[in-house]
Specification:
The chain is mainly α. The protein has a single domain, classed as Cytochrome Bc1 Complex, Chain D, domain 2 (Orthogonal Bundle), CATH 1.10.760. It is 60% helix and 0% strand. It is built from five helices and no strands. Helix 3 (53-64) crosses helix 5 (90-102). It is globular, with a radius of gyration of 16 Å.
């Protein structure tokens, strides 16, 4: 039993179960935010290029904390989307923000 626990801890700690932010984005975000993040999603303040990474991180934290970021309906939707995606840790939020920034046109 101890070996099983140790192996499980090593696998989890190694990032073997790291979130695939591209997959999450393509499944849950692309409809409203567009393939390159430049689509103006209703109620969330415009395309991602308007925001710095720190602003994206801050907004995702605020959504998860149940704060109204732009409009109440949009904030409730974003909470559901983030929870469905399994985004709930600081690491998840940072990873998602990094992926969003990577979408910007060069």
């Amino acid at each position: 039993m101890k070996k099983f626990i140790l192996i499980t801890a090593l696998i989890v700690g190694s990032g073997a179960f790291a979130m695939d932010y591209e997959k999450v984005y393509n499944k849950l975000c692309i409809k409203c935010h567009g393939a390159d993040g430049e689509k103006k999603a209703r109620g969330v303040g415009g395309p991602f290029s308007r925001f710095t990474k720190d602003e994206i991180v801050e907004r995702l934290h605020r959504f998860l904390n149940g704060e109204v970021v732009e409009k109440p309906k949009t904030s409730r939707l974003m909470v559901r989307v983030l929870k469905r995606a399994g985004i709930h840790t600081d690491e998840d939020i940072e990873g998602m923000a990094d992926y969003i920034i990577s979408l910007r046109k060069k």
